[in-house]
Amino acid sequence: MDLTTKMTIHASSQTLYEALINPDRISNFWFNSSEQWAEGKTVHVTYPEYAAAFDIDIVQLQSNRLIEFEWPAGGNGNRVVIEFIEMTDVTRVDITELGLPDDAARLMDQKEGWVYMLSCLKAYIEHGVTDLKGHLSK
């Protein structure tokens, strides 16, 4: 099953794309990345706030337009596609996670996670907020 989450952010697609692939920026709103994301690389990411660490495979990058990765790495994970659609004064970020099980609790969990990540990205880009990540309570 595929799950899509969308949010508009007052920024250019270039700003948002760079925030995700640059390890110095992504750590301000999501997880820590071992290196700059590049197509074909396996990148180690950590989420200390949730005691999580894993590798992701960067499948495809289209500058300022698309990021596609698989997590966890190794060919058995879920595919995630992040698209940047520029609109008047905003960019819409569409995230689709492919291949999720048809399980209501898991889908709710994933949807909650993507909404939270996009909210943290929006707060970081629009207002410079860097202390939201890791504060989602279950």
From TrEMBL:
InterPro entries (UniProt xref): ASHA1/2-like_C (IPR013538), START-like_dom_sf (IPR023393)
Q: Which SUPFAM superfamilies match?
A: Bet v1-like
**Where is the Activator of Hsp90 ATPase homologue 1/2-like C-terminal domain positioned along the sequence?**
11-126
Q: Which Pfam families match?
A: AHSA1
The family note in this entry says: Belongs to the AHA1 family.
Full protein name:
Activator of Hsp90 ATPase homologue 1/2-like C-terminal domain-containing protein
Naturally occurring in which organism (per UniProt): Macrococcus lamae
